[in-house]
Amino acid sequence: MSASVKSYAAVDLGASSGRVMVGRVGLDSLELSEAHRFVNRPVRIPEGLRWDILSLYGGVLDGLKAAGQVDSVGIDSWAVDYGLLDADGALLGNPVHYRDSRTEGVAQKVWATVPAPELYAATGLQYAPFNTLYQLVADRLAGAQRLLLIPDLLTYWLTGEQGTELTNASTTQLIDPRTRAWSYDIAERVGIDLELFAPLRQPGDPAGLLRPEVLEETGLRGPVPVTAVGSHDTASAVAAVPASGERFAYICTGTWSLAGLELDAPVLTEESRAANFTNELGLDGTVRYLRNIMGLWLLQECVRAWGDPDLGELLLDAAKVPALRSVVDAGDAVFLAPGRMPERIAEACRASGQPVPVSPAEVTRCILDSLALAHRKAVDEAQRLAGHPVDVVHVVGGGTRNALLCQLTADACGLPVVAGPTEAAALGNVLVQARAHGLVRDLAGGRELLTRTQPLTRYEPQGDSARWREAQARLAGD
Questions:
Q1: Residues 118, 121, 127, 131: is their CA dihedral positive or negative?
Q2: Count H helices, E strands: the chain?
Q3: DSSP secondary-structure letter at 213?
Q4: Long-range contacts of 41-49 (CB under 8 A, 24+ apart)
Q5: Which of 76, 233, 329, 411 is catalytic?
């Protein structure tokens, strides 16, 4: 390998799988390959739904061994969840899964102390029942001396050093997006001790060196630094949006769809709160102004219920089903929990007086039309609420493999869609590491490198946008 090319391991953990990718970066080159992929399968025990964090850590170690010698390691994952440590730094139990039911009704108790409009004005976070703030209010913290968000917990096990990376911390509903620091007032009023958290880190900060025991287990030669990246996977994915200029929207697709804009400042208006937009922190002082949409979770759960049929054939059949026959609200919390997804979609259609999808192809088409409709609504409302018009929508993440969804999103939004890269979170992870080592100059430089080196597909809007307006009105009950 050329001395001017460096190799970075990107640990990227999603809600259903984890992977260790290797990015090889030069001044004008960027190549990504998969070293190891492993299942992330939550476990339901009598106490509730838990992450199998030890299995995940084992997958990370196996992945680093498969990756071979690297110049740095970075970790990103889903947001909001955490592990609790005792005074000796030992994990007190498997981290609770955000889909666990323990936070039911907790938000209402919090709002009795800090009204929802006031909480939004202070933190900019949209309401979700599983926000870290609500989890902490519901949690029994006896014996806990330290709280580490999932990527920070794994980093601690790799290095022995503790920190709290900022982009992920911004999803806790305990950060002020204007100051990019803890909101001590909110934490005090809801009874959360911020001393539980390790000191804040910025993307690009050093996060320690792999411990000797880790080097021995993985076969790597030390020293190998771990670099803090945008450890919320959406922050890394947005960093890998191959956009130029500012007039773009993005949709990070996967288990969730995160649709929104990249801004210089948060939008903290009451209208923004009512529209359920969130202000999460990104790289270089940016704000990820976006809405969480249920995403391909809907289809994943249906496919599981149907016994895992061939997805390619299912999508081909779905493309033949009449468009917009039935749609559901893809952001409705009724679809949050696992199980019975085809039946729940059918029930939602029946309740709204629409034709009930029966076959897998009909249900799949209903899901994809509904997701495209939700993308349209989020992109339109984000532009209006932020006063930030866009000319193109960038779709990144696993949903870029779904050509039908990408085309429907272009049709619904009435804007060109540029799809790719698929492994956006891993690429954003790699680019932050590369920038920390001087191979990428800044966020814009990383995006230029992506545009030159990664395969992208463009979808032009087709058909009559009036069909989408009618479907949106139908869903709203107008």
A1: negative
A2: 18, 21
A3: H
A4: 41/16, 42/97, 42/99, 43/94, 48/96, 48/97, 48/100, 48/101, 48/102, 49/96, 49/97, 49/99, 49/100, 49/101
A5: 233
**Is 233 one of the catalytic residues?**
yes
Residues sharing a CB contact under 8 Å with residue 455, sequence separation 6 or more, in sequence order: 420, 421
Question: What DSSP state is assigned to residue 422?
Answer: T
Cβ pair 437, 233 in contact under 8 A: no
Flag whether the pTM goes above 0.90. Answer: yes
- What is the identity of the amino acid at 477? G
Which amino acid, one-letter code, is at 466?
A
Nearest to 349 by CA among 367, 331, 361, 337: 367
208-213 contact pairs (CB < 8 A, 24+): 208/155, 208/158, 208/159, 208/160, 208/161, 209/159, 210/73, 210/158, 210/159, 211/158, 211/159, 211/160
CA 473 from chain center: how many Å? 29
Q: What is the pLDDT of residues 227-250, one digit of tens each?
A: 999 999 999 999 999 999 999 999
Peptide bond into 225 cis (omega under 30): no
For 292-333, the pLDDT digits (tens) are 998 999 999 999 999 999 999 999 999 999 999 999 999 898
Instruction: Judge whether 24 and 1 are in contact, CB under 8 Å.
Output: yes
According to DSSP, residue 70 is labeled -
Asked if 256 contacts 103 with a C-beta cutoff of 8 angstroms, the reply is no
